[in-house]
From TrEMBL:
This is Inhibitor of apoptosis-promoting Bax1-domain-containing protein. Keywords: Membrane, Transmembrane, Transmembrane helix. It is found in: Membrane. Belongs to the BI1 family. GO terms for cellular component: mitochondrial inner membrane. InterPro entries: Bax_inhibitor_1-related. It comes from the Eukaryota. It holds the Pfam family Bax1-I. The chain crosses the membrane at residues 18-36, 56-74, 86-107, 145-163, 175-192, 199-220. It is a multi-pass membrane protein. It comes from Lentinula lateritia.
Amino acid sequence: MQNAPLVQQGQPITWQRMALTAAGVAGAVVVIDGFLNRETRDGLSTGEQALLHDTFKYTGGGLVLTALAARSMFKSGLAFRIMTANPWLVLGVSLVGSIGTMMGTFYTPPEKTVQKHLLWLGFNACQAATLSPLFLFSPAILSRAALYTVGIVGSLSYVGATAKNDTFLNLGGPLLAGVTVVALASLAPMALPLGVRSLAVTEALSLYGGLAVFGGFVLYDTQKILHHARLSEQGLMKADAINESIGLELDMINIFIRLVQILAMQGNNRK
């Protein structure tokens, strides 16, 4: 065990595999759009386009900052200190930091630009600290998971953006119940003495159930952005791309984490 490599190895990425993945993603977009979106809406208004574009800019920027900060934290040894700490302490600190900075961002008006961006940066820093141990996995696994995440979120966002108004907004309640089940399944092994079969069930709920739930959240959050853009055009609320981006960023992070775990499990099963 002492001689085993610390970083998990994965299969190298080839251009052929990337091309096949891209083709699969493109096919998935067509299939998902045809199945979920039989009745499409008219074109987006100027306000809807502007808020959607700004939201994805902040989402992409936040994810890049999170990845760079997580890599720096990993190189500094923070990931190892996190892994050796009490898991409940790590969970509590990460939840307090993430929720605190997220709520601070939500309740800061867009007019306070500096304060809002600082809180947004603090939120991304908290996400980076939580994600830094993922760099123990091989770059191939992380790259494939990132590519698949972009494909999944991109296809579902396209479906949500082209669907009729408010088609997926009624998913809020079921998705909240689903994420509660996923969270309990993730925490159960830490709190309860479970057998092998029970662990397998909770792991499947956490991984595959989490993929389904957060995929649904992508549809919901995309339509929520467009709904808020229409309210903004009517003067009922102020458009806030930073607030909208946080939901999509959390969706992508949770999908990415689960894909990393699934790909790592598949790699171990082949050995």
